[in-house]
Design goal:
Layout: E1 3-8, E2 11-16, H1 59-68, H2 72-85, H3 88-99, E3 102-103, H4 104-111, H5 115-127, E4 131-136, E5 139-144, H6 147-163
Antiparallel strand pairs: 1-2, 3-5, 4-5
Helix pairs in contact: 3-5, 3-6, 4-5
């Protein structure tokens, strides 16, 4: 049975070629639609192809991109950082700490969540080196460990606001 390569969810997999021999974006739209005209998982979003029929179109460009690629440990650490900040509570904590040094009870009041939720999130952020704390008597004050995270959070919010046309809703 013929197969066509496609990507889904970041990993490669095989799927059967279309019955008429066509595959990918050249296949008819009706073959890529499921019940009630809903696209199947094999259909690329917005009609964009999710694979290329050519092995390599521009080898010099591909070589430059490969040479510029960051080493795997850096890629993995960056992905971990994005995964960490992908949690709304941890992202809100990082944003609040990018503006002010705060203790757990103040963070809980700012976010409208329990101190337990804040402590749990801070533990993860501290483990990844995103936040640091200092003790003043019995109170621990948290701050971002460096300005890189503040810039990252600010850029992410700026990007989200631009994509949404500047409309944001507060919680």
């Amino acid at each position: 049975m013929a197969t066509a390569r496609t990507r889904q969810g970041g990993s490669a997999r095989h799927r059967p070629a279309e019955p008429n021999g066509a595959s990918g974006p050249a296949a008819s739209a009706s073959q890529r639609l499921g019940p009630a005209g809903v696209p199947t998982v094999d259909a690329a979003p917005f009609g964009a192809p999710d694979f290329c029929d050519a092995a390599c179109v521009d080898q010099p460009t591909a070589r430059r991109a490969r040479a510029a690629m960051k080493p795997w440990p850096t890629i993995a650490a960056t992905a971990d950082m994005f995964r960490l900040l992908g949690d709304p509570t941890r992202l809100r904590i990082a944003f609040a700490l990018s503006r002010e040094e705060l203790c757990v009870c103040d963070l809980a009041a700012v976010l409208g969540v329990s101190q337990s939720v804040v402590s749990h999130s801070l533990r993860a952020l501290r483990h990844m080196g995103v936040v640091r704390y200092r003790r003043a008597g019995k109170v621990a004050y948290y701050a971002l460990d460096d300005e890189h995270v503040a810039h990252l959070v600010d850029e992410a919010f700026r990007h989200a606001e631009e994509r949404s046309g500047g409309a944001t809703t507060g919680r």
